[in-house]
Amino acid sequence: MNDTPSEPPPATPWWASEDAWRKIAIWVTAVMFVVLIGLTFDSIPKITAGSARVPAYEVINQRIYYRFSQERKLPVPVIGDAAPLFGTALSAADAQALVSHGKLTFQAKNCMNCHTILGNGAYFAPDLTKSWLDPAWAGESAREGLMERFLLDPTTNARGYGTTRRMPNLGLTIDEARAVIAFLKWTSAIDTNGFPRNFTPIVQEGDR
Ligand code: HEC
What we know:
2 domains; two-stranded antiparallel sheet
């Protein structure tokens, strides 16, 4: 016979109680929400066109090249002499409108379905963040014409880079193609901290 009274169940330690976990979850969510808002406000000025790393849209009127920074140990963009896109220097408002048209075309045609840009997109086709500087465009002076020709008819003008991958003809108009080129010229001038890693810029005709 065992008639000793049974021990009361041990009290649940505070860290194992449901109530403590509920409170922790609520507090962590609330604190992280505030952190997220803070980081958002901290990022906005850094990603706005016209800030230290993201140039204003008029940069499409200038030459863009890269110079290796010993201090940062990566290539950094340099905004050079006047080099208007398609031979026409644009006002700030016109440059913004053109880059914006290019970005909208990029989204409407879903280029990111195959390409990556600024860290977003697919890896079927080359990263386009610095495609303005791709050595495949022969040289700085031939580049915009070759890019336009390629975008208007990527099947006939396919390069392929030794793969069988081909870009389909997306039916861009000449205005859309030029706007996309402006958008890509602008992204090439963004200081992306050396990303995509080890990209090789087009043969550069010196610093100027
Ligand atoms: C179905 C997949 C696919 C889609 C969608 C696509 N591309 Fe491509 N693109 C490719 C492939 C594959 C290549 C590489 C083959 C080549 O250059 O011939 C390429 C190459 C390019 C290049 C040359 C890249 C370089 O650095 O030399 C540019 C610029 C380009 N595409 C722009 C665009 C734009 C702008 C769009 C949207 C309007 C787009 N692509 C949509 C598959 C695609």
